[in-house]
# Entry
Amino acid sequence: MPKVTFVSVSSEDRSALEKGNKYGSTPSFRLRCRAILLKSEPHNGRARTSLSIAGELGCCEMSVNDWVKRYHEQGLAGLQVQAGRGRKGILQKDTDLAAVQRAVQANRQRISLAKAELEKELGKEFGVLTLKRFLKKTVAASNGCESE
# Structure
């Protein structure tokens, strides 16, 4: 029989978990808060198993165990999605911005020519949509800074 752990949660943490469960910014954060809340509540006088919580939430029992471990180590912050996840962008603001600005200035009306010039200069392959997204993101960031 596997060892069943009970998560003890203070009243402050319980209210923060309930708030995260109800108003969390992402569905994954809300699910994790719910898992910790379920793990902290006794069921029929006993601690709930990770398997029963996983069945109720529609996830894997190992995921529940990982979330409990992260909650013990880092608290509520451990339930958030960690930084650095996902694919990194092809064009980087700190290294490629100056080259992109030069290429766009030289070819203001023809983005495909600017793209071809950038691919040669930077040694990277990317699509026109990638360049457009990069320009939109950097222009939006620079416009936001100017208005403050």
About this structure: The mean pLDDT is 87. The chain has seven helices and no strands. Residues 128-147 form the longest helix (20 residues). The chain has two domains: 11-79, 93-147.
